[in-house]
Amino acid sequence: MSLPTTNSPDTTLDSLGSAAARATLRAHPSRGYVQIEPPVEPMPRLSKELGGAVELFVKRDDLLPLAGGGSKTRKLDYLVQQALDSGADTLVTCGAVQSNHCRLTASAAAREGLGCHLVLEERVAGSYSPEAGGNNYVFGLLGAKTQVVPLGGVDAAVAALMEELKAAGATPYYIPGGGSNALGALGYARAAISVVEEARKAGRPFDAVVLCSGSGGTHAGMLTGMRACGDQTKVYGVSVRFDAAKQKSRIEAQYKECAKLFGNEAPEEDVVIIDSQVGPGYSLPTPEMRSAVEAFAKLEGILLDPVYTGKGAAGLLQLVREGAFQPGARVLFLHTGGAPSLFHYQPVPE
Ligand SMILES: *Cc1c(COP(=O)(O)O)cnc(C)c1O
């Protein structure tokens, strides 16, 4: 399939959202990686296992295009277009040692014929191994160059790398960690508008949305898109790294920036964070994550990942068990991908 060229009319937008929301989306060209919306699927066996009072659904963003799929494809759809429009020949980004975002950035770079440099942050001391499988194996396979820095070493390494590339005559474009700035989050605003519209067309809106809250573009973008089409559904962000207070302020800042693109406010009370699934820290396993990964696999045939969606789904199960949702509620879990790292961590059985 040939991708649309820069600034070609994006026909997938024709029926999306209000005229004002469409105008905002049109003002920011995307590369066209997301031509077909992944399905929203019911999860009847998991719903039944949890008592049957709540109807659970999953948005299959793990099935998005680019190598291995996942949420970052939606952000890269906008970011890579901007990189190409600015004449870049090299993508530079950063992430953890099993970063899904780095995998997908490397995949986009390969597809566009761009160079790709990844700065990998060893957030857990001793967690990096050059021989590691999962995403680490795929970085090199996709042609990306990698360097590893200790926790907190990213900014200095990226600055040095950008200078080095420029000195060598390259034109690098920097994509922030997780692709999380207002432009990247726009990919999720668009996704949210599409989810809301589809549910409205079917006459069955959702009563709550549960997603992982990491670098924040997903959470901020979903809130922006839902509110931009007048949907006030509560969004629960399950933190995978920081405590609730810190994560809330990180999301509020990004939500403001993204909502501004639509000319909208970003009410602080929209940002709801659950931090009970972080456990000992980012990427470190918890019993709740393990049992959520097992439940999705055995009951619905869906692979989660141990770092993000396993903990996000553990948050979903916790909310259902605690009675956070009314009987009969329709709850949507956003599957943001990540399964390739499952083949490295193998969290189940304990
Ligand atoms: C990056 C990522 C997230 C978190 O999304 P953010 O926009 O960074 O908050 C969730 N799930 C998976 C699989 C990811 O790779």
UniProtKB/TrEMBL annotation:
UniProt protein name: Tryptophan synthase beta chain-like PALP domain-containing protein
Positions of post-translational N6-(pyridoxal phosphate)lysine modification: 72
Lineage per the UniProt record: Eukaryota, Haptista, Haptophyta, Prymnesiophyceae, Isochrysidales
Native organism: Emiliania huxleyi (strain CCMP1516)
Domain Tryptophan synthase beta chain-like PALP: 39-337
Any GO molecular function: D-cysteine desulfhydrase activity
Active site: 99 (nucleophile)
Cofactors that this protein relies on: pyridoxal 5'-phosphate
Keywords annotated in UniProt: Pyridoxal phosphate
UniProt family annotation: Belongs to the ACC deaminase/D-cysteine desulfhydrase family.
Superkingdom assignment: Eukaryota
